[in-house]
Amino acid sequence: MRGKKEADLLQKTYHDRLTVVRKRLGRDPQTQESVELEEVVYKDVLCALSQSGNNKPDRQEFYSERQMGAVLFTPPGILLEDNDIAVVVTEAGQTVQGVTGRTFAYISHGETPFQTEGLA
Question: Which of the residues 34, 79, 82, 90 could staple to 94 if both were Cys, CB 3.0 to 4.6 A apart?
Fold first, then answer.
């Protein structure tokens, strides 16, 4: 019961929406060549995006690029893999895109590292 109560409490904090695309190898039906396919594995899942406190632009040779280390909190059963492409639309309407690490699953929720590419 403890996990259920925790899951119910955490569910109240999920105000953002998550869509996840996973790349996999497949075959082009016309050429029979191996190709990389993109498959939507989750669409509009409720989640919570939590950013790290010390995010600053990384200096590149000719420009600055904003990257942010963050954590995605998701309901139980949402399992992301390394290098999944994730798009989060926040409650405030901002769109954040990036790549994920592997989800660490708890009985009440999942926590996934998320390296963003900035706000769109």
Answer: 90
Instruction: With beta carbons less than 8 A apart as the criterion, state whether 113 and 101 touch.
Output: yes
* Beta strand residue intervals within the chain, DSSP E: 16-27, 34-51, 58-59, 64-65, 68-74, 85-89, 95-100, 104-105, 110-119
First to last CA, the chain: 40
Contact 3, 101 (CB under 8 A): no
| Tally of residues, the chain | 120
CATH node for 2-119: 2.40.10
Buried b (16+ CB within 10 A) or exposed e, 42-73: beebebbbeeeeeeeeeeeeeeeeeebebebb
Pull the structure tokens for residue 64: 């600055």
pLDDT in tens, 64-115: 456 779 999 999 999 999 999 999 999 999 999 999 999 999 999 999 999 9
